[in-house]
Every structure is written in C-alpha cells, then in structure tokens.
Amino acid sequence: MAQPAPIVRMRGIGKQFPGVVALDGVDFRLLPGEVHALMGENGAGKSTLIKVLTGVYGIDAGSIELEGRPVAFSGPLEAQRAGISTVYQEVNLCTNLSVAENVFIGREPRRLGRIRWREMRRRAAALMARLEIDVDVTAPLSSYSLAVQQMVAIARAVDVDAKVLILDEPTSSLDAGEVAQLFRIMRRLKGEGIAILFVSHFLDQVYEIADRMTVLRNGRLVGEYRTAELPQVELVAKMIGRELADLERLEERPPAREGAPLLEARELGRAGAIEPFTLTIRRGEVVGLAGLLGSGRTEAARLLFGADRAGTGTLTVDGRQVALRTPRAAVRHKIAFCSENRRAEGLIPGLTVRENLILALQAARGWTRPLSRRRQEELVGRYVAALNIRPADPDQLIENLSGGNQQKVMLARWLILQPRLLILDEPTRGIDVGAKAEIQRLVAELSDDGMAVLFISAELEEVLRLSHRVGVLRDRRLVAALDNDDELTTEALMETIASGGRA
Amino acid sequence: MTGTVPLARRITGHRLFWPAVVLAGLLLLNLALTDGFFSVEIKDGHLYGSLVDIARFGAPLILVALGMTLVIATGGIDLSVGSVVAISGALACLSISGLEDQNSVTGVLTAVGLALGLALVLGAWNGMLVAVAGIQPIVATLILMVAGRGLAQLITDGQIITINSAPYKLIGGGYWLTLPFGVLIAALLLALTAFLTRRLALGLLIEAVGGNAEAGRLSGVNARGLLITVYAFCALCAGIAGLMISSNVSSADGNNAGLWIELDAILAVVIGGTALTGGRFSLGGTILGALIIQTLTTTIYTIGVPPETTLLFKALVVTVVCLLQSPAFRARAFHRRRRPAATPAPADEKVEVRA
C-alpha cells in the first residue's frame, strides 16, 4: 500500500524550558486518514510536542510542515484556523456556559454583529445528534459529568473544519461505553480522511484504535512503529527503556489482614451524594473501591475525610466515635486524602515543589510552628528521591512538572504526615506505566508497614492486585464488600457492578 | 542551569527590577529639578531632607499597603481601610479631647489602645463576613467602607476634633533617635509582618489559600481562622496609619482622613507584583510600590504640575509602571526587535495576570 504524503511533518524539534530540556531532535509525521498514537511516560515530552505543533509554545530548533508548507503558529487559534484542532487532557471549557455556547465560543453564528442564538442551538443540537451525545444543548455544561464535558470538547473540536484532530488523553475520565462511543466517532472521522493524533495511557485502547505509533522517551524520539508489528510488552520496554524483567507484576495477592479495625463507618451517608453505607477498614489493610464513574466512589471517600459533611450515620476511629466536620479534623486523626482532581483540589499554582510538598504538614502544625528550612529540605529531599520526582529540583514551580510528577508530589504531601489511613482517589489515572507501577508498589509497601489504604480506581485489575478487600459501588450505593480471595476475578467484579450484588 | 544565566539578565528578569527602575527614575527627575534633593542634614537633632519627607509622609500608606498585601494574597481585597483610618483617628482624638490633661501619657496610651482595639474588631468583622458568611471580599468590605465613614462622623459628631497633646503628636509628627517616629513604626511593622509571614509559616498558608482555596482546605489549612486573622491585621495596620495621620495634623476629620487611601494601597500592592488573583505576594514589592506613589506625589509638587492636572499626571505614571510590570507588554515592546522568534517561557506566562 503506497503511503500518502504526510499532512504534518515535524523535523528535529527542540524545546527547552528553564532547567528542563523538554524535546530534543524529535521527528514526527502524521498521515491523513490514520489514527496515530503518541506514546511515552509522563515527562517524555508528549504534551510538549502537541503544544509545539499547535503553537502554544514556540520551538527552539527544527521545522514544522503542514501539507508540505512550513508553518509556525502563534497560538492554538491560528492552528485551528489552519485545520489542527485539539482536545486537551483536562477539559478546557467554560462550565458556566451552555453546551451550545461552549461548542461555538469564539465563532458564534452572527448576523450584523448579533449572535444568532436559535441558529447556534440548532447547529449544536444537530452536531450532538450526529455524534450520538445525548445532551440538552441549552443546559449549562456544569450540569453534566466530566465524561460528557469531554465529549462536548471533542464535538467542538471536530465541528471546525479539521484536517488534524489531536486528542490528548481523551479517555482518561470515560467509562467503557463512552470510550466505545468515542472510538466509533474516531473511526468515522478517520474514514473522512482526518488525521487523528491520539495520546492515551491505556495500552488496550491504543491497540484497539491506533494504526501507527510514535514513542518518545525523555524528550527524545525512540521510534515510529506500526501498531500491528509491535507487541505490547516491547512497547512498554521502549517507553520506559528498561528490561522486561524489571516489569514483573506484583506477586501474589496479599494475604488478608486480621488487625484491629482502624476506621468504621456505620450507615454513613449524604443526601444526593451517596446512600448510607457501612464499611470497616483495618490497620494495614488495603480496601479497594470499585465501580463505574459516578457510582459514588469519590463521594464515599470524601465523607471519610470530612471533605463533605455526612448527613447520616456515625464514624468511629480506634473504636471512639468522631465527627469529621472538616478535612482538618480528619488530618488530626491521621487520615489523608489524595484527590482525583489534581488541578482543582491539589496543586497550589505559583508555589514551588517544596512548598506544595510540605503544605499539609505545615497546615497541621499551624502557622506559629514553622518547619525549619533545614527540616523542610531534608523531608523534601527524601521524598523527591523516594518517589523519583523529576526534575529533582525542590525550587521548581509545581506547574512546570509533568502530570505524573505532580501526582507524586501530591502523594508525598500526605506521606510526610505518616497517616494511618491514606485515601487515594484514582492515584494512577493519566499516569504512565512506570510511575503507575511505582505507585502500586508504594501502596503495597505502606500497607506492609501497617498503614491502611483506601484505594479507588477505575481499573479493576489494579484494584484486585492491591486490595485485601473490595467494596463495590453502583448507582451511589455500596452494594457489596468482597474478600479478595481466589474466586474474585475481574469478571466477578464486573458481574457484581453490573448486577448490583454477588449472586 | 541557573548558573549559566548571565548576571545582567538575572537582574533585569527579577520581578522587582522595573518598579525599582521607575522609583530611581522619579528620584533622579527630582534631583534634576531641585538642587540638593538628595541632601540629608541634621537640624535640631532631627534628620531633614526631601528623602526623609518622602519616607515620613509615605509611612501611613506603607502601613495600609502592608496589610492590604496579605489580604490580596488570600485572593481578597479590603476596601474599608480608608474608613478604618478615619475611625481610629477619630476615636483616639475624641478620647484625648475628653482628658483633663491632654499631655497625660497614660491617657494617650488608653486612647491609642481604644482606637486600635476598635480597628481590630472591625477587621475581624470583615474577616467573619468573608470567611464565615462567605460574602465576596469586595462586597463585604464595601459595607464597612461606606458605613465606616458614617461611624467616623458619628464619633466626631460631624465636627473636626482638634487636640493639643504632645505625646500624641509624637506618633505622626515626632522624632526619635533623629528619625521620624512614623517611619520607625512603619519599619517595625514591616519587620513584624516579614517575621510572621516568612520566618513563621503564615505566608505559606496565606499563599496556599489564595492560590487554590479548595486545595488549601483539603490540605487541612484552617482558612477561616486565617482569613479572620489577616483581615484583622489589615485593619490594625490601617488603624495605626489613622493614628499617624490624625497625630500629624493634631485633629480628626471623619470626612477626609484616609480618603481614597485604599486605592493607593491596592495600587502599591499591584505595582509591587502581587497578583490581585491571590497567591504569591511580595512585601518588598509593596514597599517599593508605596514609595513610588509617595515619590510621585512629592514630584508633582516639586515640578509644579498645575493642581488640575495632577490626577492625570499620576495616572500616566502608574500606567507606565503597570505596563512595565506586564511580561506580555515587555515581550511585545522589547523582545520583538531583538529576537523575532522568541516566545515566553511557561513560567512567565503564569505571572501575566499580575499588574
């Protein structure tokens, strides 16, 4: 099969940030009518390459061609006009505006300077119908789940006359059905000759949809491959640059814990968020929470941390009844919570890695008892090394780190406190294979040292690999709490989620 | 890597570089227009000179701007400081005017204590409205901005209270160890603020709440207590400034004392590079900003700008400072000629909201 001329060709791309070489001599090409996956660990340069292509950043070296002509976009808007549309990892829409407004923002249908609202709504509804997204286009975007918001972002991107569609981690917050829907759309667009650049950490998805892939590592090009010719294990080895032997899965399932109950929730609930549930977490025990997106996993965790106030039920820690009205109260009982929404609920922009890292400890001590600079540096140095945070510069601004490394900083913020119960909400979402394995190993080690962990993840394999017991949620209800014995498989878990209880 | 950045670029890249340049420029302009502008001499055991005057008359603004910096760093704003200035001066003068012996030190100290106590209460009230009732800071403090003027006039009974008290006069008009007493107070408060925020951990927690309030809450920061503390501190600073202003003229004017000082203070904070959106703050920047504004006022008098155009002139200079503080503007104005392909690094983009 003769290959058509590439629609995008990048040669020898180089890009530096203060203190970091993000891209170094990277070549990349994108053919029309293909789905091309961009693969690599966090910090490998995937997002930077995309931002360079769409003009968010300028380049320090190399050249970019679109349809054979050299281009240098001054920003995403200019790139979009030239036919390159992007949907970023984190939804960049205005949630206070309606769906229709979001789709047409900046390019509203106008007549004599007036916006034609009716026309806008009609076209938005038609677009949603074409992509089979079931929404009311006049409703504010905030009334829909993150998954639907993501679909709207994609709808917006494909509605402009795109030749190239860039999807940066579009599936990280979608459930299986929504992913299938997205893939259907992607195949249709591909059939229309659009080139799709796809970034995802879900290898299965990449193998399902991508025709070819380009692998990056530490800002350098590893190679370009046909998906069909590169087995998954080899891909992983190329991404992390390690031998396969290092990648062995965590061994057998952990033996069940018999420790004393650390935390017991009895009929704990909150109207509109989660039905009353009863759950016990023992010392050194990893309890997994499984369930679909929106099934109430996060809501349950937030009650245990006092992030939201419980409407019903009681909570006991060490057999004593406590009222966790605020996160501060939970921290006093050595309960820690790492939110799934890093940007909105975790990072403090404008502050350094060091300041972000010591925040929870300093908050617990109060402002009158500062940590000495030396103690800060010692703690930060230890956790930066232990969690392999890159770049290992405590005075780097947090926003200059890649997503995976930011996640590690958030983890370290809580580990410093040496909590007795660590609640991790999707700690491995949007994180590369290497960092994921590191975090999983860490959870196992912490639990061996006696820390209790509540582990929330959409990936059932991960939940099963780590947990001693698994709580299953469905429709904002805890429907089962299962011991992780040999009978419990991903199939059994899925069955429970689907049926709402173990038969 | 940082070691390879040339020294010159490190200096010009410093966020206080441009405000410092503007301040130096204003001072040099004065030097060119007024002979002996920089000369400082000792007369009657006091330091005299134009520079000393700038510091002396700028002291109340520096105080108000210090408190304002912390409030703005939490992502808030305090419009009521001007009213607190008036209230504190009015209460102090009222209480002194009622003394049999206006030169009694105990009487003056009681008056000062009363005034500052009331300022603290008013600040805590602001903080409660913001932190407990959840009212937007601009609205919450607008209440006291308007009502406070009325309160000040109630205290003075609509009149200007004139007093004749030597100990009280010391606060704003006196000298100690050759230095203006007001400047010493401002320096002391600056040192105190720097200690609280940078040696103790108040600064980090304020920046956490201002940078991302929800993340701060989930990290266990007691935002409620923090906000009340910060607003109370801001009002305390304004209260001291009010004592200085009324002491300097030995009278309290509920109508005009501290009028529009909140706007000058906000301006000083912004010129100093603290973003109105909250987060990172710079005390040094705020001092520079306050000094620029005070020098500007002095300059207007020395170069003899006609009174009807002073406001316009002031606005012009402030616009220039703000433009120089904007990385986006600098990139357009300066970089384009030198390196056409240059793009701002991501770190620079984040501070674009400043000024």
TrEMBL record, chain A:
Entry-linked InterPro entries: AAA+_ATPase (IPR003593), ABC_carbohydrate_import_ATPase (IPR050107), ABC_transporter-like_ATP-bd (IPR003439), ABC_transporter-like_CS (IPR017871), P-loop_NTPase (IPR027417)
Record's GO cellular component terms: plasma membrane
GO MF annotation terms: ATP binding; ATP hydrolysis activity
Swiss-Prot/TrEMBL keywords: ATP-binding, Cell membrane, Membrane, Nucleotide-binding, Repeat, Sugar transport, Translocase, Transport
Keyword Repeat: yes
CDD domains the UniProt entry points to: ABC_Carb_Monos_I, ABC_Carb_Monos_II
Domain ABC transporter: from-to ranges: 8-243, 242-500
Topology within the bilayer: Peripheral membrane protein
Pfam families assigned to the protein according to its UniProt record, in alphabetical order: ABC_tran
Protein's cellular compartments: Cell membrane
SMART domains in alphabetical order: AAA
Domain of life from the UniProt record: Bacteria
Name by which UniProt lists this protein: Simple sugar transport system ATP-binding protein
Organism: Thermocatellispora tengchongensis
From TrEMBL, chain B:
Main location: membrane
Membrane topology: Multi-pass membrane protein
Key word Repeat present: no
Keyword terms of this UniProt record: Cell membrane, Membrane, Sugar transport, Transmembrane, Transmembrane helix, Transport
The keyword Amino-acid biosynthesis appears for this protein: no
Record GO cellular component, one term: plasma membrane
Subcellular location per the Swiss-Prot or TrEMBL entry: Cell membrane
Species of the source: Thermocatellispora tengchongensis
Protein's name in the database: Simple sugar transport system permease protein
Residue intervals passing through the bilayer: 16-34, 54-72, 79-99, 105-125, 137-155, 175-196, 226-245, 257-276, 283-305, 311-329
MF term (GO), any: transmembrane transporter activity
